[in-house]
Q: What sequence folds into this?
């Protein structure tokens, strides 16, 4: 029997893969004075990874200590 958490994770991974496969066209990312051309299949996971790292850092900086 599969656990509900595993099912949710598998569905999210499947949806993420579908989104990546449907977005393979090249895009131009403009950030201040820079222009970077890349495929959306690279840009989407890169943006997601940056968001996860920033969220982790913010959570660590604002989180409560466990031993207090």
A:
């Amino acid at each position: 029997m599969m656990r509900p958490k595993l099912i949710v994770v598998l569905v999210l991974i499947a949806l993420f893969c579908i989104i990546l496969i449907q977005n393979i066209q090249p895009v131009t990312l403009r950030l201040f004075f820079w222009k970077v051309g890349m495929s959306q299949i690279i840009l989407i996971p890169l943006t997601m990874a940056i968001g996860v790292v920033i969220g982790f850092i913010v959570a660590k900086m604002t989180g409560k200590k466990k031993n207090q």
Remarks:
- Helices lie at 4-22, 40-62.
- The beta strands are 26-31, 34-39.
- DSSP finds two helices and two strands in the chain.
- The CA atoms of residues 13 and 45 lie 12 Å apart.
